[in-house]
Amino acid sequence: MTDITFSSADYPEIRRRSMTLTSKIFKKLSSEDIKICGRHLGIWHQKALVIDNDEELDLFTDYSIYSYRPNGFNMAEKFLRLYHK
Fold first, then answer.
1. DSSP helix/strand/coil, 45
2. Which of 21, 10, 6, 12 is CA-nearest to residue 66?
3. How far apart are CA 47 and CA 38, in angstroms?
4. SS3 call for 66
């Protein structure tokens, strides 16, 4: 395994790229995926997501990308398999 060292000066670029990747993965969710994840987290009410604060939004985003596993793969794995160049 290759040792990779990051400094605090690298953080802004790492964060920017992480946010870009998260956004790309999140955009691949279908409306049905969003509904299912909202139901799993108890934030789907009357045909809409009800998110009260930033923490709930972060939880929903992370759950949708990393914990929701339709067909045995989470959305990050699916994105890597289908869209990796």
1. strand
2. 21
3. 10
4. helix
Which residue is associated with the tokens 């009800």? 50
d(CA 63, CA 33): 11
The model's pLDDT over 33-60, given as tens digits with 9 standing for 90+, comes to 999 999 999 999 999 999 999 999 999 9
Q: Token pair 């509904």 is at which residue? A: 35
Q: How many CB atoms lie within 10 A of CB 75?
A: 20
Residue 71 near residue 32, CB atoms below 8 Å: no
CA distances from 2 to 5, 13, 53, 80 (A): 10, 20, 39, 21
> Both tokens of residue 56?
């709930």
pLDDT over threshold 70, residue 1:
no
Alpha-carbon distance of 50 to 7, in angstroms, equals 38
What residue type is assigned to position 50 of the chain?
A: V
